[in-house]
Each structure stands twice: as structure tokens, then as C-alpha cells.
Amino acid sequence: MAYKMGLLLSSVFMMAVFMFAGDLIGISEVHSYIDSIALNVAFKIASDGLISEKTRDYVSSSGATLYILTNLNPSFGDIVKFKVSKNYKPLIIEEGEIVISVTRSTVVGYYTGI
After folding, report:
1. Among residues 90, 51, 54, 53, which one has the least CA distance to residue 71?
2. What are phi and psi of 105, to 5 degrees?
3. Are 102 and 38 spatial neighbours (Cβ–Cβ below 8 Å)?
């Protein structure tokens, strides 16, 4: 009888551990995804010299949100800081959605030699 009770209790705890591990894997996956989006956005801003509608559409079509933290009309040599964020609905960590974001900066005109 004690064996069966211990098995039931341990299965409940193991389920919570598996759900927590699933959340950590999901958060890591979303973070990697928006990090790759942010790297592409940094390259586009640096090579184009502006934050174009094409870049904004690229970010919004991927399900993320782009926030520009510095001036919206940069000139050659300016540093543009921006943040790409995406909502994530965790399994067990929190009741509601959490926002995962990546902040990057790029120099306008850095990739003009390509």
C-alpha cells in the first residue's frame, strides 16, 4: 500500500517537473527565435539606413513586436537601439502570458561595403 501511495505522489511531482522543464524549453525556443529576428532587423537597419515598412512588416509577420528605443530617423553613423518582443503562454510558471524580449543596437551604415 505504501508503495502505491509513494508512486502516486512521485508521479504528481514528476509531472510538475516535466511541465516546468517544458516551460524552460519553450522560453528558450522563443528567445532564440526573436534573437534571430533581431539580428536580421539589425542587419536591415544598418544596410538600409532607416527603419523601413518592409522591416516592420517582417517583424509583425513573424508574430513579434518591434520597439525603437532611439530616434526614428537615424543618419549615417548613428546607433539605433531597438527591442523585439513576443508573448509566451507558459504551462506552469505563471497564470497569464509573459513577454520575452531581446534588446539590440546597430550602427547605421556599417554594412555599406557589402
Report:
1. 51
2. -140, 155
3. yes
For residues 23 and 15, give the distance between their C-alpha atoms in angstroms, rounded to a whole number: 12
Rounded to 5 degrees, φ, ψ at 51 are: -95, 95
How is residue 106 written as a grid cell? 546597430
Q: pTM here? A: 0.84
Question: One digit per residue, pLDDT tens: the chain, 114 residues?
Answer: 778 888 888 888 899 899 999 999 999 999 999 999 999 999 999 888 888 899 999 999 999 999 999 888 888 888 999 999 999 999 888 889 999 999 999 998 876 655
What's the Cα-to-Cα distance from 87 to each of 26, 41, 62, 90, rounded to whole Å? 11, 19, 12, 10
Please list, in sequence order, all residues whose beta carbon lies within 8 angstroms of the beta carbon of residue 67, skipping any fewer than 6 positions away.
Answer: 82, 83, 84, 85
